[in-house]
Every structure is written in C-alpha cells, then in structure tokens.
Amino acid sequence: MPSAFIVARRELSGYFATPVAYVFIVIFLVLAGALTFTLGNFFGRGQADLQPFFSFIPWLFLFLVPALTMRLWAEERRLGTIELLLTLPMPQWQAVVGKFLAAWAFCGIALALTFPLWITVNILGEPDNGVILAGYVGCLMVAGAYLALGAAVSALTKNQVVAFVLAVALCFVFAAAGSPVVTEFLTQRLPVLAEIARALSISDRFTGFTRGVVAARDIVFFASFIGFFLFVNAVVLDHRKAD
Amino acid sequence: MSATSPARLGATTKPPRSGGRRLWSSDLGLLAAAVLAVGVNMLADRLLPRARVDLTQQRLYTLSDGTKQVLAGLKDPITLRLFYSRRLGAAIPVYGAYADRVREMLSEYAGLSGG
Fold this sequence. Notes:
The complex is a heterodimer.
Chain A lengths: L1 H16 L1 H19 L4 H4 L5 H29 L1 H7 L4 H21 L2 H10 L4 H28 L3 H17 L3 H10 L1 H10 L1 H10 L1 E3 H24 L4
Helix pairs in contact in A: 1-6, 2-4, 4-8, 4-9, 4-12, 6-8, 6-13, 8-9, 8-12, 8-13, 10-11
Chain B lengths: L18 H29 L4 E3 L10 H8 L13 H6 L1 H20 L3
C-alpha cells in the first residue's frame, strides 16, 4: 500500500509546515512535565519509575489528540480539498490509513521527545527500563485509539469545533468507562454492564502496560479498536462525499 | 489526468439512484465490523489469557523455575479455591483486574501441574 505511505508522508510534513506541530509538542511536553513533577509528586514518591508520568498520559491525550484529529477531515471538507484528495487515483481507504498513520507517527514523535524524563529517572536511580518501555508502548496504543476515534468523528462534520468537542466526549466515554465512579454506579443498577464497561475501558487496558506486561489480548483490543474506527471513518467518508 | 473523468472514485460501479440501498448496505457493514471487533476480543480473552510479554527486569509476572519444579513434582491432588466477589470487582476495577491476574496465575499452575 504505497499510496497510504505517500499520503502519510505528505500529511506529516504538513504538520511541521504549520505551527500546529510546534504548538502541540510544546504544550504536550510542558503539561506532561508539569503534571509529572507537581501533581504526580515525582520526587516525593522517592521511587525511580515513570508511573506518575504514565498515569497522566490518557487524560492528557484526551484533550490533545482530538485537537490533532479535529482538522483531519473537517478542514479538507471546509476548504474543498477533500474533492481533490478523494479523486486521486487510489482507493479511499488508503487516504484514511495514510492520514491516521501520519497523526500516529506525530504522536510517536511527541512521546519520544519526553526522553528527558527517562534520562532524569535513570540518573536519579535505577528504574526498571522494561516497564518504562512497556509504558511507552501503552501510550502509543492509547494515542492510536483516540486518533482513530477522533478521525472518524472529524469525517462526520465540516466544523472543526464540533469535531473536537464530539471527539473529546467520545474519547472520555472510553477513558472513563473503567473508572471506579462509573463502574460503581453501574454495579448498583446493572452489574453486567459494569463488566462490559471494564472490558471496553482504554485506561483499564493501559494500566497493564504501565505494570510492564504487554498482553496479547490488550494488543488485540487496541488493534480491533483502531481497525473498527478506521473502517467507520472510511464508511462515513464514502457517504458524505458530496457535502 | 483524473480530473477530466466525470466519475468519482468509489462510486463508479453504483448507479446514482441507489443511495438508499447503499446507506442500508454500509449500515450493515458497520454492524458486521462491530460484531467482528467484539468477537475477536472475546476470542482473544478466551484463547490467549496468558499470552503476554513480561518486560519487567525481575520477571515479576512470570512463574519462576522453582515454582515450575514444585508444580511438576506434585504427587497428591491439591485444591485451590479463589473467593472473589464479582460485585466488588466490578465496583472497584482495580480489584477486578487483580482477580483476573490471580485467576490467570492459578490456571497457569493447573496447566503446569498436569491437571
């Protein structure tokens, strides 16, 4: 699928041609660092690990990733460039996959730039680097899940603000599904739903990674989540081509 | 160039009046994809509960050789009972996840001891 890669490369260079990339990366790094060291109590815990950093990632991405995805299709629609993109001689799904891959690679770059935290923790102590590696894999998975969801929502609308708000709301549903507040409420009403909520929860799956365990079923969950929403994205795009 | 061709990509095979039918068929496609995604996850839960890579340096989530040896050398049947409140596990997800882990470990014990 070379044309998906061509779309991805063009999109990725597009991020860095505009202030989007720099603003995103700077805000992400500042927030991640600030949250880790203040609310996360990085020094006070006295443990050489990146647990405080990882615990904030799903919530940080909850706002930042939709900001990245809101323009993916909505802007193309508003500017009318979607017509050009979709009439290029390549299957539509390749455009969908290409845009997703570019955004994912971009998130990967932003995550990679948090390396000073990793260096800090390695200088201060002897952390378990395997756990940290698994945590980063988990972060990438969470980013991918939010991205696929956000991109599908963005394809629905012409308005970027609508895309952003809807994407944040939907991502929040999946992020909060496993939190005690939700599951406790559900157990009192419908215990079956509580188990389903836990199985669907992105943050619940993510904790496995932060413990240092990369489980096959968590990988399957994220892969099917991403695949499903990319499919939704392609279907929505096919439908609303004309508006 | 493709700009001169009147047909849009992806809609070339469909006549313009079948919009309703296309809507219906893609709804069906979405449903099928959702069922597929849920099915794959249920299958993975059933078939691969213990397939995982333990990246911790001390192999915290992997059974040690000593444990394996003891399990392989068991002579009498041993019964292990796990008491777990499904209600509590659902209300406080951390407990639920912990119970899952214990259950996986116990089934690993059972597998290694040959019954």
